[in-house]
């Protein structure tokens, strides 16, 4: 007698194909849909801030009687660019200095303004390396590693304090997963920070995905053994 060959019921095979096709379609459609949604959400947010202050004669919606997405965003970009152009010449610089002098004399507001201005100047200046490097530090205990964004070397009073202790410290930002919008500011010894070659964008994707999206990478140099980094025997 011929051996009986068991075959899977056709309905199971069809269900498996349907599930695989659905998952494949989800992988294709979900990123596109989320990207489009986030883009339009940002455009609507910008429009809600700018469009209400546009005079009717300068608002295209007044002539076409329909909402035109992106009008406020375009106006904001043009306005910021013009302000930047004017602020770089003598007359515009004088106006900016006058406005800053008023803010600097206003209680409470001056502290907020100086802090925000210093942050933007530090992050956006051409030579800035703030948050452009990614590293690893041992946190919350030895042998456990956390991904961090390198902010800058310690400055001011903090640097003086650390120098008195004979330590060269670096400020790093430790974000949580999966929403890296908040976190911890840590000062770690420079020799305990392991710099990575991945970009901040790749690190952000790694954090948001909970470690699922690991960037492809070819190491340029071999990692230094932990014992050697701590000054112990090799």
From TrEMBL:
Regions crossing the membrane: 21-43, 63-86
- Per its UniProt record, what InterPro entries does this chain match? COV1-like
Does the UniProt entry include the keyword Membrane?
yes
Which controlled-vocabulary keywords does the entry list? Membrane, Transmembrane, Transmembrane helix
Pfam families in the record = DUF502
The source's domain of life comes to Bacteria
Question: What is the protein name for this chain?
Answer: DUF502 domain-containing protein
